[in-house]
Amino acid sequence: MSGLLDRLVGKNGEEKELQDVRYIKAIPLRAYEDIDIIKAEVRAGNIVICNVAPLAKTNIEDVKRGINELNEYANLIEGDIARLGEERVIITPKNIQIWRNRD
């Protein structure tokens, strides 16, 4: 074995973890303070799909404020943010862009 397989499995067959693992995480927005959790996940290199419906049921102004803050954050880190329907947004780190169909 050589190259990538050596890094994944190792020379004597034991499995190794990749050092640079990223996740796609679903995080519901239940309170405005959850924005900090979402930002921390994106800062760690993860993609976050955020359901805003739980907070929208109780405080639509906090949803608007939170989405604005996430938009500013995505721009600051050169990441990306987009709506996924009426209740969800996706936020990505710098190295991942969201494809948009420009019909």
Keywords:
103 residues, globular
What form results from the Cα inertia axes? globular
CATH topology grouping of the domain at 21-92: Translation Initiation Factor IF3
Query: Main beta sheet: strand number and arrangement?
Result: 4 strands, mixed
CATH class of the domain at 21-92: Alpha Beta
The CATH architecture term of the domain at 21-92 is 2-Layer Sandwich
Number-wise, the strands total 4
**Sheet with the most strands: spatial strand order:** 1-2-4-3
- Sequence stretches where pLDDT stays below 50 over 5 or more residues: none
Describe this structure in words.
- With 103 residues, the chain is α+β, with helices and mostly antiparallel strands.
- The chain has a domain at 21-92: Translation Initiation Factor IF3.
- It has four helices and four strands, in the order H-E-H-E-H-H-E-E.
- It has helices spanning 4-9, 34-43, 53-56, 60-76; strands spanning 24-28, 47-51, 80-84, 88-92.
- The protein has a four-stranded mixed β-sheet with strand order 1-2-4-3.
- The longest helix is centred in the middle third of the chain and has 17 residues, at 60-76.
- The protein is globular.
- The mean pLDDT is 88.
